[in-house]
């Protein structure tokens, strides 16, 4: 195993990230983790890592870095091009970066979250077995110019060899625009709206006040027919709330585990990943589907991820790269 050092030369906003801390809501701990979990999982799969491994999440900005050792990397999410020593490469593929090379990943005009998978173990401090940033725990590692990251990897060792073939996996990915079409199931408080169909009959604009806790949307004011208070209760990621202002709030992965606004819809799992890519000024529509359709959507996504994982695993094994696989 070799130790590689990644030197960040230029970056806007990026953090060391993973899939977060799911299942700890009963302790009052928010899940957090990568906003677009499917893209993060695929970034790790493409380099042979466990899906939950630490990686780099870049938000609405460019990142430039260099490495002092050979690395196997992938880039998924919003980014559309990767430049390695000024040569353009496709995203959503397995890429080789040789020692001394410079990698430039430009920011995207559409979507906002990109993920950089690095074969091996990206070193970072952990709380509750996760590197994921949490503002309430005052924890997390933001990358700045001059940051140096350590990666422990088997790639580039004598056991691997020195000739690096290029794989073309074409991992599944979304094509983003300024319009996001989401799906949701009906929420428990839909009857508090005078016209429940209002939420499904208009487009909403993403407001700048949005963050990893919740996305704020503005549309034609939603009229709450019932204004009595609601006791705070547990709320899921993806809950769509209507505060007294008549805006919408979509609760994201950094959300508090309880809330007291009416929940009029709950986004499907795939739409939670998708909406995390929306920028301020983008537009969102929400369509209602039943539970069976929501489960079918999820199964389709998971099937594509499993297929990619199988293809990557088989390709690595055919090359004698079993030492690079963590699955």
Automatic annotation (TrEMBL):
Name of the molecule in the record: Unannotated protein
A Pfam family this chain is assigned to: CT_A_B
Keywords: ATP-binding, Hydrolase, Nucleotide-binding
Residues in Carboxyltransferase domain copies: 26-304
SMART domains: AHS2
A single MF term (Gene Ontology): ATP binding
PANTHER family linked to this entry: 5-OXOPROLINASE SUBUNIT C
